[in-house]
Write a structure and sequence with these properties.
The chain is mainly beta and about 250 residues long. About 10% of the residues lie in helices and about 45% in strands.
Length: about 250
């Protein structure tokens, strides 16, 4: 119990540090193999590889959250167990994480999404004695995919319904599939003036979501969308779709 309280205090302090510093001038040493994780329900477990590319040992804590990046790991309840939840990774070495589904009820007619967090805390002392110690957190999507879903995740972006809203400043995406569709960007073409969206976004199963464009688009017939979605492996799914106008 004492060790757990100490660990919570250390990790809470680390999260405060993460929220209070700019990471554009420094880099984390621990690297996650992949940009997303897919847990297929028919599998007993899923594994993720962490690698320490730095010159010093690193202590990492790993947990899943439900979408709130500010939630405390000690207070989050998810239907998964991660082993090990805390690990020390030596320079140039790796650590394999094993994630198990604990069988609490999740929807079986669509995907569920969580977020995998990897918090890295560098060691104190030594060559870093007179330097500020920074904690780094990486956070990637974690999808739970039930078996027997209609269609495939690869095909899901082609099923998205695209609609231009009346003001010409936003596009509504409707996702009729049981899969989450992640978008890197898209462009509107065919009118007098092109417009883009490049901030990234995700549309959940059965969800309708609006995305703001970089510039206003005048209503016109024949407008097209060129989209750039992301597949299970972090690769691109490029495609084209018709853009319908709101009556």
């Amino acid at each position: 119990m004492k060790r757990e309280l100490v660990l919570r205090a250390v990790m809470s302090l680390a999260l405060l540090i993460v929220g209070g510093v700019c990471t554009s001038q420094v880099n984390a040493s621990v690297v996650i193999a992949g940009t997303r994780v897919v847990y297929n329900s028919k599998e007993r477990e899923v594994t993720i590889k962490l690698t320490n590319d730095g010159a010093l040992p690193a202590l990492v804590q790993v947990w899943l959250d439900k979408g709130d990046a500010k939630a405390s790991p000690a207070e989050i309840v998810v239907p998964f167990t991660i082993a090990p939840p805390v690990a020390r990774i030596e320079p140039g070495k790796g650590q394999t994480l094993r994630i198990f589904y604990t069988n609490e009820p999740l929807p079986q007619d669509k995907e569920s999404v969580f977020w995998l967090n990897v918090l890295e805390i560098p060691p104190e002392g030594g060559a870093q004695f007179n330097k500020l110690q920074l904690a780094f957190r990486s956070r990637i999507k974690f999808f739970y995919r039930p078996s027997g879903l209609k269609g495939t995740a690869q095909e899901a972006p082609t099923e998205i319904e695209w609609k231009m809203l009346r003001d010409g400043k936003k596009v509504e995406l409707r996702n009729p599939t049981p899969y989450f569709v992640s978008l890197a960007s898209f462009e509107i073409e065919g009118g007098a003036k092109a417009s883009t969206f490049d901030e990234g976004g995700m549309v959940g199963p059965g969800e309708a979501k609006e995305f703001s464009l970089s510039s206003q688009v005048s209503p016109a017939t024949g407008l097209k969308v060129r989209y750039h979605a992301i597949n299970d492996f972090g690769g691109a799914i490029d495609g084209e779709a018709s853009l319908h106008m709101t009556p």
